Amino acid sequence: MKIGFWMTAFAFxxxxxxxxxxxxxxxxxxxxxxxxSLGESGAFAACRELGISxxxxxxxxxxxxxxxxxFRYGEILMSADxxxxxxxxYADKRKGIKHVIKCTHDEIHGDxxxxxNGVATLFSMPKYLGVVTKNYNxxxxxxxxxxxxxxxxxIDKALQSYELKDSNPAKSMLLLQQALIANAFADHxxxxxxxxxxxxVPRVQVVEWAKANLEGFLKKNRGxxxxxxxxxxxxxxxxxxxxxxxxxxxxxxxxxxxxxxxxLQIDENPLDPVRLxxxxxxxxxxxxxxxxxxxxxxxxxxxxxxxxxxxxxxIPFYEKFSADYQHMSKMDFxxxxxxxxxxxxxxxxxxYDLGRALNAMPSIFAEFxxxxxxxxxxxxxxxxxxxARYLEAFSNVQ
Length: 398
What we know:
Elements: H1 3-13, H2 18-21, H3 33-49, E1 62-63, E2 70-71, H4 73-79, H5 86-91, H6 96-108, H7 118-124, H8 128-132, H9 142-164, H10 169-192, H11 203-213, H12 219-233, E3 236-237, E4 242-243, E5 246-249, E6 255-258, H13 273-295, E7 311-312, H14 317-320, H15 323-326, H16 330-335, H17 342-345, H18 348-359, H19 361-378, H20 380-385, H21 388-395
Antiparallel strand pairs: 1-2, 3-4, 5-6, 5-7
């Protein structure tokens, strides 16, 4: 396997894998315990609003194809970090995901067993390395493209389930379970969209810029590292390294300050919008699937959950991430991105790459806007299923 793959995988797993493995580095937990928690609370809220009892809510025993492992809805939602698509998870015959899920539950309850570390996670889910280094669809705009894709897939399966509920109950239940797996993947990308580092970081365009402009080897992998550093610092005070806030709004007109991965529940206020908005989005998403399965009704127009999805209300990315704006020397400014990544900081090439990428952000965001507008023009389903305000915000993202 290529050296660059392992270099990027190491950096991402020392960060992303802490969701479930407690590696002692910068954490990206929105993809672990926070995903699981949002999935559970949102799914049960959907059943409550539809008058379905907790005992009858079909989100607690969802089998994969071999029926050797049964999942809760939130467990599937968080597992989307470990598979490329719902079909891959459904067909999986390995046991490794059980270890990952157990570690996530342990994390929620405050436990940190020695078997839940980055190395153990990689042995449990060896293909995870390949997934995490290609997680473009977890980032702004692309996460909502895949939400629309998989939520529609879930709706279609749910409608098929409804058609067969009397003539073939067993097949109907199987289709409902497959619909819930597809929708849990959709809701993974949906909930990603609420974390500050996943709102506007131009993951795809940074990697394309790196491949076209960096000298030497491993260009794509170095681009991956740059996006990780940008993701980790979107809502931080670069001068202190302290998580603060990232101003956003949604298509309803709500405005709030969201936070980054690992900071979902630091505010104990039960009305904290950082928690409530993604939870309510999952609730609406699951409701649409259940209504299709139980009543044969397909949602018309914009998907309900997408009205809640945030877009940036911050100053332009390339203005915010500049030494002048931060009132720092250029050296201190670049070094501030590496506070919790000392091993990467020691690599001069990565610091040099980051500095060049930050200088190129105006052109990188121009490519981002161009890509969004092209997607809207060539994929009519996006205009039908996403709010006009969201489309406008990303057409002009900066």
